[in-house]
Design brief:
By secondary structure, this protein is of the alpha+beta class. About 15% of the residues lie in helices and about 40% in strands. It has one helix at about 1-25; strands at about 45-50, 55-60, 65-70, 75-80, 85-90, 95-100, 105-110, 115-120, 130-135, 140. The longest helix is centred in the N-terminal third of the chain and has 22 residues, at about 1-25. The termini are far apart.
Length: about 140
């Protein structure tokens, strides 16, 4: 009886999973954006500002943060005063972008209207991932120092 019940549960799970995959449309490339200023590497972190129609992307090996317009799919700005940008936090209420730079060991802060630097917070070298808690308005940064 227990074996029959286990097989029944397994059959239901397989049916649900198979049905979910059958209903998904395949992913299809709709647009490409040339990035001739990038020499190599990948994007370490991406962050969407949905209300502002922007995508922030860290090009760590190129020492840049790229800002894309989500409506036109175009590169609209490059922040280039970084060494190894990792994770990002966008605070719409402050109109500020916080970028964790691992090699410099700091969080750099930028105005998001002009993209000009407005401050920084010194950390230990090796800063990487970060997590923001809206309830306390606290940003935690992981570092290897």
């Amino acid at each position: 009886m227990k074996l029959l019940r286990a097989f029944s549960v397994l059959a239901v799970i397989v049916t649900i999973v198979a049905g979910a995959f059958a209903q998904q449309a395949p992913i299809k490339l709709s647009h490409t954006t040339p990035l001739p200023e990038l020499k190599d590497g990948d994007f370490d972190h991406l962050l969407a500002d949905v209300a502002g129609n922007r995508l922030f992307a860290t090009a760590e090996e190129n020492s840049k943060v790229l800002v894309f317009d989500l409506k036109t799919n175009r590169l609209i700005h490059t922040i280039a005063d970084l060494k190894a940008p990792h994770s990002l936090l966008y605070r719409a209420d402050l109109k500020k972008l916080f970028v964790v730079d691992g090699d410099l060991g700091e969080v750099k802060i930028y105005e998001t209207d002009t993209y000009k630097p407005v401050g920084s917070i010194k950390l230990r070298e090796g800063a990487d991932a970060s997590s923001y808690y809206p309830s306390t308005k606290s940003l935690y940064v992981v570092h290897g120092g």
